[in-house]
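re: ur question from earlier - yeah i can do the single chain one, its not a big deal. heres the input i used so u can compare w yours
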Amino acid sequence: MELSGWYKQLSEMYNTYFLDAADFVEVSEADGVHIDADNHRILAEAIFKKIKQDNII
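and the output i got, formated as tokens:
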């Protein structure tokens, strides 16, 4: 199981929300770890959509 799978399992155990960033963004080619500005925007939009979809706020 990948790391995100463990986090998803924990979120279910503790009844919290989960969003796998890897479903929306890719790491930068510059260092292979961080995301660039465009991917930050994409991730922010995905988080916002999840918040609205699940009526979190």
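Residues 3-53 form one domain. not sure if urs matches, ping me
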